[in-house]
Amino acid sequence: MQRIILTIVLFLSFFLESFAQIEEMHDFSVEIDGQSLPTYRCDVDMHDVQQASWCQFDMGKPVKVRIVKHGIAAKNNGKDVAVLPSRFGIKPDFENDSTISFMLSEPHYLSIEWNGDRKHNLHLFADKPETETYDGTEPRLINWQGEANKDVFIKNARIIYFGPGIHQPKDLIMGQQTGDIKIPSNTTVYLASGAVVKGKLVVDHAKNVRILGRGVLDHPLRGVEITHSQNVLVEGITIVNPVHYTVYGGQSKNVTIRNIKSFSRHGWSDGIDLMSCQNVLIEDVFLRNSDDCIALYNHRWWFWGDTKNITVRRATLWADVAHPFHLGTHGDDRSEKGETLTNVLFSECDVLNEDGDGVFTIRCGDKNRISNIRFDNIRVDYLEKGRLFNLQVYFSDKYNRAPGNYVRNVYFSNIEFLGDKSRLQSDVWSDFDSQHRVSDVHFTNIFVNGQPVTPFAERGR
Fold it and tell me: CA nearest 341: which of 406, 403, 285?
């Protein structure tokens, strides 16, 4: 079958890895193997909006990172600098009180924090080199090997290319004044490094869509919408300060979200929210949001059906407001049995902040049935205030029209909290009544400041 290529090149200009009209920050200077990189502004924390910095690069071999903090020196003889997540064990060397360096052996997403300042920190994003790139000049075949299901994107593929520079929705031939950039089926969307797209990408009633690259979605209404669609990949891009969700998924199947970076500071500007979605993989993402980082629901708004087979791994989550993990709440209260949220795995994740009512929050309303949920190998480096575990079958006047049915078969293993123990509040385990309960919850290897604990032991759970 003949391959049809559609390449759309808009406002093509070259910025040598820099992002036009994204405000540069000068709190930090960054060098990678002696090469200077620009740093950019991101707004964080809706309750006390501040300007932090971020920087990104690709690496295919170990690199030396050198960082200078301008205008302030480290305390404690130049030693009060944290490189998080702590999981990676990165201990910087100090050239002086304002300059650190360290070797980075493999790609990671990091937070560099001077003197405990978490609202003016440096977010350092190191990615693997891109394996698939486009230059907007001529079509070429996609040599996509070694992973299942990739061949579905090759047949009749079209490529929509955003080169370095600014792309306004009103200038897009497929766009709307609302800021929607609608992506048809069988399409690859490529945001080149230096591309700034000021609109949201909409995948609706489509299949076989890929969104790739190192470009930025800047201040969209939402970042990426995936609704009533299947076989969708979102990989590599950065979403800066969406008004609403970073990735919004509704009643879709076979979705992969990989290597995306996100900042948000508005109310309800969640990270990744999925409603009635199935067969989803989320991996190697960094989400700093002023609402839930990852939320899984059943029915909400225009989406119906169960949520199942969701895997989240190697996610770094920073909830300036609300929860890193939030499951349940919304569902189909009108059906006799309700909907099911099941077969969910979170593994090898890092939490850099929580400011809600639970790092691990499962609140089951609207006749939901929640089961087979696993959290394994999760490290919590910091929380402003809150608790680790919040497990409820409940009814909320604000969000529900019926209580949930049950929460059962939930497994927590290898969970470690390394922050200030005095900030921890009591965990919550709450049944709605004797017929609507939380049951069969299992805890293995739970540690607080290095000491083993048994959650809810005092209640005989």
Answer: 406
Q: How far is CA 208 from CA 156, 185, 189, 205, in A?
A: 10, 6, 11, 11
Tell me: the pLDDT tens digits for 117-151? 999 999 999 999 999 888 776 454 333 323 333 34
What secondary structure does DSSP assign to 117-183, as a single string? --SS-EEEEEEPPPS----SSS-------SSTTGGGGTTT-EEEEE-SEEE-GGG-TTB-TTSEEE-
**pLDDT greater than 70 at residue 184:** yes
φ, ψ dihedrals at 401, nearest 5°: -120, 0
Cβ contacts of residue 127 below 8 Å, gap of 6+? 56, 57, 58, 59, 107, 214, 236, 259
The dihedral of CA 110, 115, 118, 119: what is its sign? Answer: negative
The answer to whether residue 316 scores a pLDDT higher than 70 is: yes
* Sheet (strand 28-32) strand order: 35-37, 28-32, 63-69, 99-104, 93-96
pLDDT in tens, 22-70: 889 999 999 999 999 999 999 999 989 999 999 999 999 999 999 999 9
- Separation CA 277–CA 264 (nearest Å): 23
What contacts 42, CB < 8 A, 6 or more positions away? 51, 52, 53, 54, 123, 240, 241, 263, 288
CA distance 68 to 98: 6
Indicate if the pLDDT at residue 361 is higher than 70.
Answer: yes
Average pLDDT over residues 368-391: 95
End-to-end alpha carbon distance in the chain: 61
Q: What average pLDDT does the structure give for the chain?
A: 86
CA distance 328 to 436: 14
Burial of 384 (0-12, 13-18, 19+ CB in 10 A): middle
Do 226 and 255 touch, CB atoms closer than 8 A?
yes
Does 85 sit behind a cis peptide bond, omega within 30 degrees of 0 on the bond before it? yes
If you count them, how many residues does the chain have? 461
CB-based burial, 290-310: b 16+ in 10 Å, e otherwise: bbbbbbbbbbbeebbbbbbbb
Tell me the average pLDDT across 90-116. 94
Gyration radius of the chain's alpha carbons: 22
Q: Which of 280, 425, 433, 446 is nearest to 375 (CA)?
A: 446
Spatial distance between the Cα atoms of 67 and 117, rounded to a whole number of angstroms: 16
Measure the CA dihedral 175/180/186/190, to 10°. Answer: 80
Q: Contact, 375 vs 417, CB < 8 A?
A: no
